[in-house]
Predict the structure of Contactin.
Amino acid sequence: MVPQISSSQYNFVTPRSTSDFHYSWTREGAMLPKHSELSDHNRVLVIREARLEDQGVYTCHVQRESIAEHKAVDLKLKGKNRGGVSSMVMGQVK
């Protein structure tokens, strides 16, 4: 999974594959933030105008037939006045 950062927008991108995979995402084991978007058959997760409450562990679940795997990334945000985000730290969860 490759995170791409642009201002207060965070993109989580999984590698492309020629096989038929089913992708899904969770944050802290629950639903994603309402202002997040999925694209490219759920392969890309975009969080626009990130807020401090968007931080946490994001997990990409990948399934093909009977094989399932997942990868998690821990998104940590540092705030500035009025709830905006000034910086972020992202680490892979083992």
The chain has a mean pLDDT of 77. The chain has no helices and eight strands. The domain at 2-93 is CATH 2.60.40.10 (Immunoglobulin-like). The radius of gyration is 14 Å.
